[in-house]
Structures are given as C-alpha cells and as structure tokens.
Amino acid sequence: MMPLFFATLLLGGLQHPVVAAALGLLYTVARFFYFKGYATGVPENRYKLGGLNFPAIMGLIICTASFGINLVIREAV
C-alpha cells in the first residue's frame, strides 16, 4: 500500500494540495491505529479506526484521477 499511497499523494497533491495533505494525514493516523490493533492479535481490532485508511486512499486516487483528467483536457485544447 505504501507505493500507492506515496504516488497518489504526490500526483494528487499537484492539483489539490490541501485535500491531499488532509487525506495523507488521515491515512497515516489510520495506519497507526491499524498497526496498534494488529499488535493485539485480535483481527477485529485492526478496523476500529484503522479502517479509515481505505476511504483516505480512495480520496487520494480521486485527486490523482482529477489531476490526470485535467492534464488530458488541457492537451486537447
């Protein structure tokens, strides 16, 4: 997940820096809680707050897609 996170954070942040920064922070905090839950050995504990990493990464993917679409539209004009 880390290569995907870094790539989407970098590319999505080129067009939406504040949104990408907020989603990056959410992803980082959620991963911290995911690993804290992982360390307990109980699988259910991973997703209490750790499950927020999936919406954060999806938001970063949307920011990156928006950046890509914007690049394609600019080239067409």
TrEMBL record:
It comes from Aegilops tauschii subsp. strangulata. Keywords: Membrane, Signal, Transmembrane, Transmembrane helix. InterPro entries: MAPEG (IPR050997), MAPEG-like_dom_sf (IPR023352), Membr-assoc_MAPEG (IPR001129). Pfam families: MAPEG (PF01124). Its main location: membrane. The chain crosses the membrane at residues 52-73. One of its GO terms (cellular component) is membrane. This is MAPEG family protein. It is a multi-pass membrane protein. The keyword Nucleotide-binding does not apply. One of its GO terms (biological process) is leukotriene metabolic process. It is found in: Membrane. The keyword Transmembrane applies. One of its GO terms (molecular function) is glutathione transferase activity. Residues 1-20 form the signal peptide. Coiled coil: none annotated. Gene3D superfamilies: Membrane associated eicosanoid/glutathione metabolism-like domain (1.20.120.550).
